[in-house]
Design brief:
Low-confidence stretches: 1-11
CATH superfamily of the largest domain: Amino acid/polyamine transporter I
Radius of gyration: 36 Å
CATH class of the largest domain: Mainly Alpha
CATH architecture of the largest domain: Up-down Bundle
Number of strands: 10
Structural class: alpha/beta
Distance between the termini: 56 Å
Shape: elongated
Mean pLDDT: 83
Length: 724
């Protein structure tokens, strides 16, 4: 199934316009129970100016989020799922799913909260009605409406809208409000402004009610921005006007002590009470519809178990499987009888969703990608204010639940990362672009520094091969040299018709290194000779980011390749690249990988006088890397011809060990010529030597035969230092 496909064959999904699909459900969700039962309490506690400030701050946060959402929607072909779809398309399925799951649960649990609010209003009229019976009856009515037809659900919202408008007329028709008295403007000192803000803020949420229907809108790119912003503007004006009316209609004491003053102070009490019931019913209806659509969208992207079942729609386009599960969640939450404990957590998940939408647009704006061409452009300050505002509101409302919500989302993210989701969108997301931008910034900064950065040195290997089998036989050895912070660049040399075989085999080799945590890239070069292909690559990659600093060669059995090998080593030195020449013993291999003989000779036997050792740095650093990854022992061996110098050399090597800080088990100084020392060397699994400027490959082969051990020959690039 294509997760981005709008529907399945045979489906006839009812499509809605801006007014019916976005404006009405968003407006009705914002004009909810807090407007009827808590606006007066807010005005009574902080005064008119304080109430206006709270309303404006709350709506500023949701308005910036709506503007950010509008900009994103005008840039992408949004699929089903509203906020979940926006975040998934931009930040990937793992982040989208980690926010989509708690957002879905929050919407489902909100249905139960709104049903409880409806029951409270109904019991205001009929206090003897049983609570559970009311809850179940209202839930059954909601579920049947949504299950049968989304269009019917939206048509009912017109009736609800008329009832709410009538309730507002009843409020403002009570009497022409006089200007509020002067002493009502100041906030009483007995309650914190931000505590009152925390109580009011959930009233401003609900801006995603229309966006959650994105998969069933005729033109979501246009409908979502226009409908959402219009609903915010209308509802914000209503809240500001209600605050004025309340301040002019009652004293602070009356408003604080009577949550239902808006009902009792109106012209027709029954009209406002009907408005309260209609508001809670419509909010529950919109949340039930939105939750089922988000679950359906997550099923299409394989976020949920049995995803294909959740992704199914009826012939009329209603995701009834997702709706059945959502109904079960709501019914279970109704049985808890009290959701006040988790109500703050629900608000936190909404705020995290809003904050993530602002972060998405902030990232896309700053990356300046060509693909980011929104028809609705906003200043960068808008998503920044929205992000800060959402974080601020979270920790003002409840710091503990904010941390719990963030922790829950982090856990979900890592669970989804572990699952390796593959049902993504065909257009990718901005995560790779974000990391590329960071890498480009780091590359520019890195390249501005002097080239010789011994302290930041790490092994970046360029490995030229003629066939994949060459590298497969020594891949573990390469991994142990580079892990964990090095990298590998595999260079397939195609002479003649080898390209198809290399292109088939190199990707799997690259993946094996990646699975071991080593950054790996591969490429194939067509060339006339092996040496020409390698030298061209060395020159081309010299100034690239993550440029190879070591060329890794394997000693060939055929002496006809020795000329190419010598030429490559010379050109590597001219381009400040080190050389590792691996000469495996045909029978011994690498043995048990427990003992390493590190041979120190020539000027390295003198006491070190600078930051670089004469062609010994790479050998020492490679021995250290292998010893760490193999958990092996290093033995230093040094042949000396003059017995008088033996004790001096031993002291110099002890000083070298101290300055290089490598774990050396013992230092062996032999009063023998080099050839005699080789034959008399203690057994090891690998012998490491320095490679001279003009290597004699016959002598290299003789060394392997003499030691009867695999050998590694190292030549410095002068960019590494074992003494740093």
């Amino acid at each position: 199934m294509d997760p981005e496909a709008p529907d399945q064959p045979g489906e006839e999904i009812q499509k809605f316009g801006m007014f019916k699909g976005v404006f009405v459900p968003t407006l009705l969700t914002i004009l909810g129970v807090i407007m009827y039962l808590r606006t007066g309490w807010v005005v009574g506690n902080v005064g008119l100016l304080g109430a206006w400030a709270i309303i404006l701050i709350a709506f500023a946060i949701t308005t910036t989020t709506a503007l950010s959402m509008s900009s994103i929607v005008s840039n992408i072909r949004i699929g089903a799922g509203g906020a979940y779809s926006i975040i998934s398309r931009s930040m990937g399925l793992e982040i989208g799913g980690s926010i989509g799951v708690p957002l879905y649960l929050s919407l489902a649990l909100s249905v139960a909260l709104y049903i409880f609010g409806f029951r409270a209003g109904l019991q205001f009229l009929y206090p003897d009605l049983p609570s559970l019976a009311i809850d179940l009856a209202v839930f059954a009515l909601l579920f049947v409406i949504v299950f049968l037809s989304t269009d019917v659900a939206f048509r009912i919202q017109y009736v609800i809208l008329v009832i709410i408008v009538g309730s507002l007329i009843s409020v403002f028709a009570a009497f022409p409000p006089a200007p509020p008295p002067y002493d009502f403007v100041a906030a009483p000192p007995d309650i914190s402004f931000w505590v009152v803000f925390a109580v009011f803020f959930p009233a401003a949420t609900g801006i995603m009610a229309g966006a959650n229907m994105s998969g069933e809108l005729k033109d979501p790119r246009s409908a979502i921005p226009r409908g959402t912003l219009l609903a915010i503007a209308v509802s914000g004006a209503i809240y500001l006007a209600l605050a004025w009316w309340l301040a002019a209609s009652a004293s602070p004491e009356e408003l604080v002590g009577d949550y239902t003053f808006l009902i009792s102070g109106s012209r027709w009490t029954s009209a406002v009470l009907a408005g309260l019931l209609a508001a809670t019913f419509s909010s529950a209806l919109n949340s039930l519809v939105g939750a089922s659509r988000i679950l359906h969208a997550m099923g299409k992207h394989a976020i949920t178990p049995r995803s294909s079942w959740f992704a199914a729609r009826s012939t009329s386009g209603i995701p009834r499987h997702a709706l059945l599960v959502t109904g079960g969640v709501v019914l279970a939450s109704l049985m808890l009888r009290d959701l006040n404990i988790i109500a703050p957590l629900i608000t936190m998940f909404f705020l995290i969703t809003y904050g993530m939408i602002n972060i998405v647009i902030l990232i896309e704006q700053n990356l300046q990608l060509v693909s980011f061409r929104p028809l609705f452009r906003i200043p960068r300050a808008v998503p920044l204010i929205g992000t800060v505002g959402c974080i601020f509101a979270m920790f003002i409302i409840n710091p503990v639940f904010s941390l719990v919500a963030l922790f829950s989302i982090a856990v979900l993210y890592y669970v989804l990362m572990y699952r390796h989701l593959t049902g993504g969108t065909p257009y990718g997301d901005v995560r790779s672009s974000l990391f590329v931008a960071l890498a480009e910034w780091a590359a520019k900064k890195s390249m501005a520094f002097p080239r010789a950065q011994e302290k930041a040195w790490r092994p970046h290997l360029l490995i030229p091969i003629l066939a994949p089998a060459e590298l497969r036989g020594m891949s573990e050895f390469v991994r142990d040299i580079t892990y964990p912070s090095g990298s590998v660049r595999i260079l397939g040399i195609s002479i003649g018709r080898e390209r198809p075989r290399l292109e088939r085999g190199l990707p799997s080799l690259s993946r094996e290194f990646e699975e071991d945590g080593i950054y790996t890239k591969w490429t194939v070069m067509d060339t006339g000779t092996f040496a020409d292909g390698v030298i061209s690559s060395i020159q081309a990659l010299k100034d690239s980011f993550f440029a190879p600093n070591i060329i890794f060669l394997r000693l060939p059995g055929d002496r006809r390749w020795d000329g190419d090998l010598g030429t490559i080593a010379d050109r590597a030195g001219e381009n400040q690249m080190g050389v590792l020449l691996y000469a495996p013993h045909p029978a011994a291999g690498l043995g048990r990988r427990r003992r390493i003989n590190l041979w120190i000779a020539g000027q390295c036997l003198e006491r070190p006088g600078g930051l670089n050792l004469p062609n010994c740095d790479l050998a020492i650093l490679t021995a250290y890397k292998l010893a760490i990854n193999w958990e092996a022992e290093i033995r230093i061996l040094a042949p000396v011809r003059d017995p008088v110098r033996a004790s001096e050399v031993r002291e110099n090597l002890a000083d070298l060990v101290e300055q290089t800080r490598i774990p050396v088990r013992e230092i062996v100084v032999r009063e023998l010529p080099f050839s005699g020392a080789l034959a008399d060397a203690p057994p090891a699994d690998l012998e490491i030597f320095s490679l001279p400027p003009d290597p004699d490959f016959d002598r290299v082969r003789k060394t392997i035969a003499t030691t009867r051990t695999s050998c590694l020959f190292c030549r410095d690039s002068d960019l590494e230092s074992a003494l740093i």
